[in-house]
Amino acid sequence: xxxxxxxxxxxxxxxxxxxxxxxxxxxxxxxxxxxxxxxxxxxxxxxxxxxxxxxxxxxxxxxxxxxxxxxxxxxxxxxxxxxxxxxxxx
Length: 90
Prior knowledge:
Elements: E1 9-13, E2 16-19, H1 47-53, H2 61-78
Antiparallel strand pairs: 1-2
């Protein structure tokens, strides 16, 4: 029966791969396909630096305020909504 397993690891030399986890009871001939993985950053990036690298938005303050105002106005058009409460008297 054919079985596929995906594990991460690293190539240690031109003929050996070190796996990060066990393959369990998988034995016998296998076909190996390798896909390179990005290397992990040496340290976690500061959130402020991440935000500073994001592209600047293109919407104006006026445009955002208009959208918020329209959203709030749509709530008023709905009017008061009935509240239905069911009490279970057991």
